[in-house]
Amino acid sequence: MWRLLGRSVVEGFKGVFSHGLMSLASMGTVAISLLVLALFLVLAANLAYVADVLEEQVEVVVYCNPEFDRDQWGDLLMDKLSDIPAVASVTFVTKEEALDRLREQFGAQAELLEAVEEDNPLRDSVEITVSNPAEIDNIVQQARQLESVEDVVYQREVVQRLYALTEALRSAGVVLVFLLAVATFLLISNTVRLTIYARREQIEIMKLVGATPAFIWGPLVIEGTVLGLLGASLAGGVIAWGYADLFAAVEASLPFVPIVRPTPFLHNLLQLLLAVGGVLGMLSSCFSVWRYVRL
Amino acid sequence: MIVLSHVTKKYGDITALKRFTVHIRKGDFAFVVGPSGAGKSTLIRLLHCQERPTEGTIMVDGVNLARMPRKQIPSLRRKVGVVFQDFKLLQGRTAYQNVSFALEVTGAPGAYIKRRVPQVLNMVGLSDRADIRPHKLSGGEQQRVALARAIVNSPSIVLADEPTGNLDRDNAWHVMQILESLNKRGVTVVVATHDWPIVDAMKKRVIEIENGRLIRDDLEGGYSQDVASSRAVSR
Question: What is the predicted pLDDT for the residue at A295?
Fold first, then answer.
């Protein structure tokens, strides 16, 4: 058993090298198909990331009424708001802080605010971020019913459009990746099948001299697996190198554009590519060899 | 050793062998002759289980090939050496490797392979061509490599399907001499052939097939009935 496995590995690697051109061709096909798949995975991951980032920015602001005593009721209000489902975080903004922010926004024109500083007309408020934009109407409704809440403000239309957009982005990503995975599978299994087809005479001869199916099968399956892994490494190498560069460039010149960080994303992507390449190479050689190996 | 009883082999609507019965004893040297499509190759293919009969039994070494489980086919093929008209050598391997491969398949130890392969190459006169790949060998040399591969496992039976079909006279004779010397050492040899000069000259057992039926079985026959009868007359 171990001897057969050892021989299969040795002969399998030999097979990769002794059929140089054919191996190169199938490795190239595997690499290119996986590269395209990986590009779409990168795209889909970034679309999903953009959607996440956009959703995190959805905010509901709850304004307290002017008589609100924050020292007495502040904690209770915060607790009640946090208890509403789909509320991700709550931040208390005092009216003094609000005024500071305004001052910052006004910048050079800050003296315009002097008039109001003596009697701050702003209200204490709570900023709520939402974990699921679909729940936003519900959150607004519940917040409005709380005591000492004067008004609840959110950008209804923006939120709804954003929600539709992020959902579309995510589904498009999933569909694209799925279709491409199917295409990759067909392409790789066809390539491996051709490699095996080119060797059917060799398989025939092995059978004639009394080789057992496992004896013939082992090396060819190892060979298919190795080709799949090599192709996947090639695709992975190209994508890792390209994405790291892209990320560095985007971060340097367009820091506000959301882009998935290379670690651990690339690490996971590489693992996925290797797994897909190896498993596809193995499975497709298993199936195609089996047809010729049967006695 | 080899007993076919009432063997019929059909390929779809075509019947290659019809209720064919023959008995080949241990140590026999038999030619199988007949026109193209008569069923000679089918017979050879049945004897090493490349095909299974549609009906009838084929006993080889006491085993019925018609009912033998697939799992046992490899071990049968190690006991029965086969040679083909088109040699069927692995192109990527040297003469030596083509022969040693048939031993590796059996799980023979490396030391034995190193000892045995040169012996067999020597037997077929190819000691000095061991490291050459098939495409650089002549047809006769390739057929002798195939022969070496067929006998390296010391089979008790050697089958040959048109072994001289692609060879010139000298090489054809060389191959037949090797087969005859194997036969003298007790190996049963069955040769399907069109090569009438060789059949006539060697005066071995001749089994003639026509349309899938046995029509002649002479112990010291010629390629055709006429030669045999003329010989019978001249006696």
Answer: 64
How many structural domains does chain B have? 1
Q: Considering only residues 139 to 178 of chain B, which have any Cβ-Cβ distance to chain A shorter than 8 Å?
A: 149, 153
Residue closest to B48 by CA, chosen among B148, B188, B172, B167: B188
State both tokens at B94: 């040297």
Torsion sign over Cα B165, B166, B169, B175: negative
State both tokens at A141.
Answer: 């409704």
> Which residues of chain B make contact with A3, given a CB cutoff of 8 A?
107
Scanning every residue of chain A, which has its alpha carbon at the shortest distance from the alpha carbon of B47?
A: A208
Interface residues of A toward B, Cβ cutoff 8 Å, are 3, 18-19, 201-202, 204-212, 215, 295
CB contact under 8 A, A205 and B88: yes
Does ipTM come in above 0.85?
no
Mean pLDDT of chain B: 90
Range of the domain at B226: 2-88+156-234
Chain A residue with minimum CA distance to B49: A295
Contacts of A206 in chain B (CB under 8 A): 101, 105
How does residue B231 score in pLDDT terms, banded at 50, 70 and 90? very low
In a domain, B115, yes or no: no
Q: Among A209, A215, A290, A292, which would you mutate to test the B interface (most chain B Cβ atoms within 10 Å of its Cβ)?
A: A209
Cβ contacts (< 8 Å) between B102 and chain A: which residues?
209-210
DSSP helix/strand/coil, A66: coil
Domain membership flag for residue B149: no
> Which of A204, A205, A210 is nearest residue B78 as measured by Cβ atoms?
A210
Ranges of each domain in chain A: 2-54+162-293, 59-153
The tens digit of pLDDT for each residue in B57-67 reads 999 988 999 99
B78 lies within 8 A of chain A by CB: yes
Closest chain A residue to B87 measured between Cα atoms? A205
- A191, with CB counted inside 10 A (0-12, 13-18, 19+), is buried
For A88, the token pair is 């991700």
**Of residues B75, B89, B92, nearest to A210 (C-beta):** B75
Name which residue leads in pLDDT, B208 or A180: B208
State the CATH number of the domain containing residue B48. Answer: 3.40.50.300
The CATH architecture assigned to A59-153 reads 2-Layer Sandwich (3.30)
| Angle at alpha carbon of residue B158, lines to B157 and B164, rounded to 5° | 160
With contacts defined as CB-CB under 8 Å, which chain A residues touch B106? 210
Q: What is the Cα–Cα distance from B89 to B99, expressed in whole angstroms?
A: 9
B134 inside domain: no
Tokens found for residue B51: 């095909």
Cis geometry, peptide bond prior to residue A264 (ω within 30 degrees of 0): yes
Q: Going by DSSP bridges, is the β-strand pair B157-161/B188-192 parallel, antiparallel, or unpaired?
A: parallel
Using an 8 Å Cβ cutoff, are B54 and B8 in contact?
A: yes
